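Ex. 9. Protein: Adenine phosphoribosyltransferase.
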Amino acid sequence: MTDDISLVALRGLGPQRATEIRSLIRDVPGYPHEPIVFRDITPLLADGPALADVVEAFARLCEGDDGHGVDVVAGMEARGFLLGAPLAMRLGVGFVPLRKAGKLPPPVDRVSYDLEYGSAALELRSGTIRAGARVLVVDDVLATGGTAAAAVELVERCGGHVVAAAFLMELDGLGGRARLAGTAVETLLRVGGRPTS
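Predicted structure tokens for Adenine phosphoribosyltransferase:
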């Protein structure tokens, strides 16, 4: 796992701890198919101290004079739930799940977006984000940015103000950051941009 990692932040944990945390993210080449390298965060989630350190690193993005003050955390399905909900608890704010189409009862707000081969949609329960709320959008990986851009659009369409989009890791060279132009992007780790899932 020496790939081309840049331990961008793990915000104040120090390089040794950041490297330990990166070692808990398993690279699975060819899953679900070639040429994808799946980034499996299950070992990280199973390690209580490491998960706590990651949540704390995200929290530091939101606190203090230089932080993005937030009223609510919005997590993208599905792994964004696993990072966003404990972060919201740590910050003492609400958590809103951004779901794949058809997973929430009506009424919902929806944004459709294009994938490489087809399209998808994200939904949010109507009325769960109050007008003007400062929202942090959270997910595990920023790759091409399509889902993240749809999440930002959905939150803003519902009246929220996205103060930042935060990711455990960013895959360099896949254009995700550029696709989120106009939105502050925060990442804890940067890794080589091989195709991912």
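Check your answer against this statement. The chain is about 30% helix and 30% strand.
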